[in-house]
Amino acid sequence: MGNAKGMALVGAVKYLRLRRAEALATLPRELHHYLDVRIRTSAWYPERDMLELIRATARLVTGPVDQVLEIMGETSAREHAGVYSDLLTGSSTSRAFALWSTQHDTGELRMMEEAPNRVRMEIVGYEDPSREMCLVYQGYIKGMLLMNGFSDLLVEKISCRIWGDDRCTWRASWKRGDA
Asked: Is the pLDDT of residue 31 over 90?
């Protein structure tokens, strides 16, 4: 199992703390300590804990779960904008890799420009794929592109480890080529 930086957990933990009673009822008992301890943004935490925190948060937010998970990803991209702003600008493969590696100790994010208005993003070698994390990452990709000025976005999943593929891949396209 891999690890994620505390920065990736902070949003879910903050939300769960605001709804503590409900969080205690939905969060696995062995993770209740996250509601009390200080989350260090630069420390490593188990990816499986992050997944359970995200699942608990998604259960408490009103709305369709898939949509909630994507919005959580978009929100994370905005939160990271201040901390990682130098990595979020442009469409460089090295920047994509650097951003992923600041948050995860497993897997690699690759980004390839397919056309002037289309990119493909892949996560290769990630040890902890799940349906929920794929939806969060899809929202993160959308949020990252929106923050870089892209509009009329369409982000679609084209392969997935949980579908039996060797990597998770998204294609993002936009109608305006001036972003």
From this structure: yes
